[in-house]
Amino acid sequence: MAKLDRKVMKFGGTSLSDEKVRRSAYRHILEEVKHAKVLVVVSAMGRYPDPYATDTLLSMGSPLLTKEEKARLVSMGEQLSALIVASELLDIGISAYALPFHKNGILSDHQYEYANVLALSARCVQQALSQHQVVVASGFIAQAPCGDVTTLGRGGSDFSAVLFAHMLGLDEVDIYTDVDGVYDIDPKVSSFAIRYERLSYDEMLNMKVRVLHERCVQYAKEKKIRIRLRGTFSQGEGTLIA
Predict the structure, then answer these.
(1) Euclidean distance between CA atoms 70 and 112, whole angstroms
(2) Residue 168 to residues 3, 90, 93, 132, Cα–Cα distance (Å)
(3) Cα–Cα–Cα angle for 29, 183, 214, nearest 5°?
(4) What is the CATH code for 6-241?
(5) Which family is this sequence assigned to (predicted)?
(6) CB 111 within 8 A of CB 91
(7) How far apart are CA 55 and CA 14, in angstroms?
(8) Rounded to whole angstroms, what are the CA distances from 127 to 15, 119, 124, 181?
(9) At the N or C end, where does the chain have fewer CB atoms within 10 A?
(10) Backbone dihedral angles phi then psi of residue 217, each to the nearest 5 degrees
């Protein structure tokens, strides 16, 4: 059974791009903290050419940087995002804490751009949750045994969210995007798009619309973690992937 006093919520870059947009994310968080301690997983803020987006940061570095250096560079987007979100939650009266990446308990190999997860440790996350209403964790980032920063690949914050859910013994995670669920075609380009209320893991993996990181869905399937894909700017239930 899931622990009812813990919740994992993940917000993507378009849900965090500026202060006005982030207020919509905070409304969802404020609802959850009424009855649970919340682990919020964040992506880097915005999309290229926004100043802190992953591709923007990558464009600032030389192509001659090593893969290890590039991982450190792009990880700064998620780390900054976690600190900004925690700061703004503190300003509205929520006991929030930005978890340092080296305490997130996601241990990986040395594949810096697409790391393989070797082990999970919930100790630091649990300790932080015991002391705060909301703990904000950087998605996308893992740590190699030597302490190096590694990354989980593009869209890896989705994968981080299900890793944290499994780490905390939960059987469901909420992933928020700028679209209120999974559609058969892009609803931004067609008014005839149909939203699915429920999909199986395999149906999600076989869809041409790549809304979620593939390893996120594969891991959720393996660990039987339900994913609810919801809209940051909507109050709807979104799409359940189970």
Answers:
(1) 8
(2) 8, 24, 25, 15
(3) 75
(4) 3.40.1160.10
(5) Belongs to the aspartokinase family.
(6) no
(7) 14
(8) 27, 18, 5, 33
(9) N
(10) -70, -40
Spatial distance between the Cα atoms of 64 and 16, rounded to a whole number of angstroms: 30
Rg (CA), the chain: 17
Residue of 232, 234, 186, 191 lying closest to 207 (CA atoms):
186
Q: Which two tokens stand for residue 13?
A: 């870059």
| Parallel, antiparallel or unpaired: strands 172-177 and 6-11 | parallel
Which amino acid does the sequence have at 181?
Answer: G
Structure tokens at 231: 């809209």
User: What are the angstrom distances between the C-alpha of 162 and each of 9, 60, 158?
Assistant: 10, 30, 7
Cis amide leading into 49 (omega within 30): yes
Nearest-angstrom CA–CA distance, 82 and 219: 24
- Reported as a single tens digit per residue, the pLDDT across 129-177 is 999 999 999 999 999 999 999 999 988 999 999 999 999 999 999 999 9
User: Mean pLDDT, to the nearest integer, of 35-41?
Assistant: 97
Q: What is the pTM of this model?
A: 0.95
- Chain segment 178-194, per-residue pLDDT in tens: 999 999 887 878 878 88
